[in-house]
Amino acid sequence: MEEMQKTVELLSLWDKCVEGASGAPALAGPCLAGNRLNLDVYPDGCCHFLRLLKEQREEVVQVEFLRLSSNDCLIGTTLDSLPHLQHLKSLVLKGGHARDQFGSCQRGSLTSLPQDFGKLKCLTHLDLSFNRLSTLPSCILRLPSLHVLLVSHNSLVALPEDFGCLSKLTFFSAMKNQLTDLPQSIGELSMLQTLDLSDNVLQLLPEEIGNLHNCKELVLSGNCLSSIPDSLANLKSLRELHLHSNFLVTVPASLASLPNLSRLDLQNNCLRAVPAEIQALPFVDLHGNPLGETEPSLQAGESSARGLRKLSCRLRKHSFPVTSEGCKVVLPCDIHFYFPAGAVSDPLRIQFRVLEPDPQWVKLRHHDVLLSRVLELQPHGVKFQQEVQIWMPFVQPRMLHEHEVVVRTFSGQSWSDLRTRVKQKRGLTMAHCSVLHFSWFLVVGRLVQDECEVPAEGTLLFSRVDPDIKVIFPPGVTEEPRRVKMQVLHVPAEVIDEITANAGCRASPLLCLSQDSLVDFLNPVTIQLPLPPGITGLNLDQLRLRLLHGDLEGQTWDDITSQVVLKFTHIYVMFEVTHFSWYWLWYTTKSYIEGIAKKVYERLRLYQVNFIALQRKRDPEQVLLQCVPKHKVDPVLERLQNRYQGPEPSDMVEMFEGEQFFAAFERGISIDMDRPDCVDGRLSFIFYSHLKNMKEVYVTSPVDRKGQAVKGQVSFYRGAVPENIPEDASRRRKGADSLWLATLPIKLPQLKPRCDENPGPLCGFSFPPLNLGNAETGYLTQANLLSIARRVGSDWQTIGLNLGLTYQQIERIGHNNRDDLDKQILGMLFSWAQQNSEDPDCVSKLITAMKESGRQDIADEIETIIDLGRQKYSESIRRVGLEQESSTEDSAIAMM
Q1: Which CATH number does the domain housing residue 550 bear?
Q2: Strand 90-94 relative to strand 65-69: parallel, antiparallel, unpaired?
Q3: Is the pLDDT of residue 576 over 80?
Q4: Catalytic site residue 231?
């Protein structure tokens, strides 16, 4: 039924495309420009393509460069039309344009290709990255002109045996798949220059890989290789060999004889000894290896942390290897691991990433506070033979004594708490736990939880938070043992006074009881609570005492005073129950207390916060927005006052932990709508009381300011609230007016004069002459960068991020040159060039960034420039040598 409904939806969307082509209102979208169609940036790009194919068929079939998103729901229908594009040279069908609930790039829907794809005889570049291919489509092997093939981020487990028939292939990337071995025919790719097989599960390499005589870059990092074949020494053209994060125990000394090798990365392997020839290479990287260490010798049954190798993962590494020897690992975010010897029997690669918490899947319980971001560890579900220890740093909570710190893990269905200890490690306060499986982990502060197992003989449970609270289980209370849990929450008197307008109401601590059984107790259980503050047996008026019972979500409260028998002592009240929930003792003159209790309970879960909007003194168009808990406002402002200025904080508002809110710039001020955290023109935030709810953005005025200052504002609005907030709170937050929280003024100063007259290609730039690289690897000059910049286009932000520029740097460049795409591109390229002018590997990094950004065409152009430069350099050296030799001969003849 679901498949039928999906088919109907696709047909409906296709009808819209056809309708747009037949004279009815057409879809707004791109137009065909020259021989290129870049449709992957449009959410309905396939629909646009089908419309253009129907309206302008003669022009579309001449297209040579086409980009589509495989996340598009019409990609299947579109594939059948692509073989008609007989002139197609470059085809990009990538996924990754959508994100899942964890913030990860969502793979496209491609699992195969039509057989007719083999008819694209002109196709030289094919990118199928971020899809769901488990096998390489056979039609690809019939593409005679294919030079570049990218199938990274798929699910390939093997390559075809006749893969070597792609004789013209010069670039092949299959990173982040599940390849376990390679076909012998891979050695037939005689023209291959770049081979990237990183982050797979390769255990062996065929000897035939040594036949890739034109290979310049071989990337095998992040696999399960314990050895490499000696035939790699035959790769005389090889310049870079990446073998980091494997299980290598030895490397052949013959690698040192490779004449063009300029980089050998052997980090994070199991190398205890390395040939002297390899160690002598100036460009080899051996960090993270147990060099010089001996095998740890342990007696039977003995385990020790001594002798374990230590791995320090660098910022760009997202995985590390673990062997049966065990190891210690430190991630860049100060998360520590200890894998004891024998935790795994076979080599295993652990992948990790740190995610921003999203309330859609990070479900906090009542009165929880989030203290860390989410750590994901893969592979999920693999069981270790011994417990692995994890240390996670967290934000020190400003909580009352009834809270405790725990590590919480997600099974894919629900969250559960792990036994946690708080320890000091290297000056950091960390949450320590032990696990047998990897999944998702975070640190939270929860109400202190006391628990015990109740046997048939009965038992007694005390609260660590308030020893005056206890639960007595008499004999015969249960037939089968069951576990019960107790949590206690104190209620500040000022909160009750605020809600009740000082009506003299008092309340005891809130008591929450729960159990792992759905069956009521066989005999009544006795609960002891302290009398509300200021009330004793001497001044007690029993008619003013109310016992309330609440559900576990705190949505409803019922007065059960008349349903139980209350027994009093001088300072306690005792009563009996047969099932568990929330219990709350009130002392009041009001006859109806349930509504008041509900408001007080809601108030206990709210945080009082203020919003601040400050502008950087040196750059007023850079605005800092932050939601700050009330008690932190003064320290935050004091810390920022030297660099920022702005209005006073907003009035106090109340928010729930995990509540979404938005910031909207108004009255002539706007921001970049392409930001990943921008929703309908508004910045999206999630409020977590102990994490930084802060963002810095560049603002601009979309209207013609004519040199005048602009007085605008930023307003804050509520978004989605947590699912389990009280019903009254949800009802009050419906409607446009109730979503508004606060407004703060923002003022943009007068615009500085811009270079509008005779703008040259470097208007606004004053960089000194550049020569990137070196004589041996080739130079890139300022003129070369200008030539490259002309081809970058709208991909400049992606390229900048892959070059290592921060998102703030990219945003600053885009803002400062917001009206000129050429200047944005030049600003990005020259900013990177200035930062890396002393790096001898900067040219290779630029080429890699272009490839990672899907711009193989620019990468090829740079390599052509570099090769040409090297040739000229070699020719000049030879020419100088010949001139010297000729002058010597002339001198000899003269002497004769």
Answers
A1: 2.60.220.30
A2: parallel
A3: yes
A4: no
